[in-house]
Design brief:
The protein is α+β, with helices and mostly antiparallel strands and 418 residues long. It is built from 16 helices and 14 strands. The structure holds protoporphyrin IX containing FE.
């Protein structure tokens, strides 16, 4: 495995190569966020990096810079448009890929666009996810969570990630988009084929991407014939400067919303379930003091923030003692920023009644998560419904716990008994 190393061309670039090699000996891992064993417990790696080399470069995945502090994440997200969103994923690309080429911006609008282009498209999405709009989806989410629990409560065991968390978010986002929630398993397969299992497999990624595009192209055609008030129908009526949105753009916006709405939030629900299954004091406190639910959710979002996002330098960008060269990539590590001791006391511990919690799990600035109100509502309903019906539960098989590798971190298997 590669890891963070000294770049001999960059005398000013900070290096943690030796440090992480030592850690690798201990942990059988190195800095690679695509390594599931790193993702199970990244806190110690971030701590050493932050103390030794807070802004560093790894040669993994074709090479990228990575932040670990809160301050760096805040500062670099604001370096727009010189640090561009056109390639937000850190997949390994063919060597001759020009990351500064324009076609990347059209991949998943608006997240892959820079201002001012992204602004009108972002404005079209936001009304579906205001606190008020999200309340319309609460009754559906509540009955869904209850139905899921009905399916396993008598067995006394389940996988709280697979049978619960992962069933909720694809159905809720399908309901919002206006597509059949019964097709959720299919969507999940396609989405994982693009952003999780397909990460190291360009053919799988392309094939699943194509399936998503074909599906939403068909859905769009149906809405053009029979418009309703769902997400797809309303996008179909939008224009920018009096030019109607191209079908391709609408389809890609639907794909983004589906992808962004699935594994992010199920990761947060899964990691929360793992936390409460393994921390009896917190579990009993939440069961007896339900008023702690909202601070507990914010703490889970902080401690187990799922999402890190990429940027590409459109020109040489100086930061601290380093230069991010034109065409080089960068990962804004929001999860590590949330464990920065300069901002959070006892950052690696869960404090479910933490009062001051200015976490940045949803990002900051012009691309800040469009679905944060929805994610919070889903987490709230998922945890509340579970705790109302199953207040006492524990991990049944610690060896059965798994974590997702990649830019979305979260517990993927959480076997519990109750
Ligand atoms: C716990 C759950 C979630 C987390 C931690 C999360 C995190 C993030 C982050 C960090 C970004 C910023 C990306 C950047 O800076 O480039 C983002 C953007 C976005 N998220 Fe989320 N997200 C979550 C759930 C959702 C949900 C449920 C939706 C459903 C609609 C969603 C839709 C989006 C969209 C559309 C963007 C792009 C916004 C833009 O570029 O203007 N997210 N999310």
């Amino acid at each position: 495995m590669g890891g963070i190393s000294v770049d001999e061309q960059e005398p000013n670039a900070c290096s943690v190569g030796e440090l992480l090699s030592d850690m690798a000996a201990d942990q059988s891992t190195d800095f690679d966020m695509f390594d599931a064993s790193y993702n199970a417990d990244p806190g110690p790696v971030w701590k050493e990096m932050r103390e030794t080399c807070p802004f560093s470069r790894t040669e993994e995945r074709g090479g990228f810079w990575v932040t670990t502090t809160y301050e760096d994440a805040q500062a670099l997200v604001r370096r727009v448009p010189e640090l561009s969103n056109r390639q937000v994923s850190v997949v390994e690309l063919p060597e001759d890929t020009d990351l500064t080429a324009d076609y990347h911006t059209r991949a998943f609008p608006p997240i892959t666009m820079d201002p001012p282009e992204n602004i009108p498209l972002r404005r079209m999405i936001l009304p579906f996810f205001t606190p008020k709009a999200v309340e319309n989806y609460r009754p559906y989410t509540e009955s869904l969570c209850n139905e899921l629990i009905d399916g396993f409560i008598d067995k006394g065991v389940c996988d709280a990630a697979v049978d619960y968390a992962q069933q909720i978010t694809p159905r809720v986002i399908s309901h919002i988009l206006g597509v059949d929630p019964n097709q959720a398993d299919e969507f999940v397969g396609w989405v994982r084929g693009v952003i999780e299992l397909g990460f190291d497999n360009p053919e799988m990624r392309a094939e699943n991407n194509k399936k998503l595009v074909i599906f939403f192209t068909e859905q769009l055609a149906l809405r053009r014939e029979n418009p309703s008030d769902d997400f797809i129908s309303l996008l179909a009526q939008q224009s920018v400067d009096d030019v109607p949105l191209a079908d391709k753009t609408i389809v890609k916006m639907c794909v983004l919303t589906l992808m962004a709405g699935i594994d992010t939030t199920w990761s947060s629900i899964g990691s929360s379930m793992l936390h409460f299954a393994t921390h009896p004091e917190d579990r009993r406190r939440l069961a007896t003091e339900p008023e702690l639910l909202s601070t507990a959710i914010e703490e889970m979002l902080r401690l187990h923030a799922p999402v890190s996002v990429g940027r590409v330098a459109m020109e040489d960008v100086d930061h601290n003692d380093a230069t991010i060269k034109r065409g080089e990539r960068l990962v804004i590590n929001f999860p590590a920023a949330n464990r920065d001791p300069a901002v959070f006391e006892n950052p690696d511990e869960a404090v479910i009644d933490r009062e001051r919690n200015r976490h940045i799990a949803f990002g900051i600035g012009i691309h800040r998560c469009a679905g944060s109100n929805l994610a919070r509502m889903e987490m709230e309903v998922a945890l509340k419904t579970w705790f109302d019906r199953i207040p006492e539960f524990e991990l049944s098989d610690p060896d059965g716990v798994t974590w997702a590798a990649g830019q979305v971190r979260g517990a993927r298997n959480v076997p519990v008994r109750f």
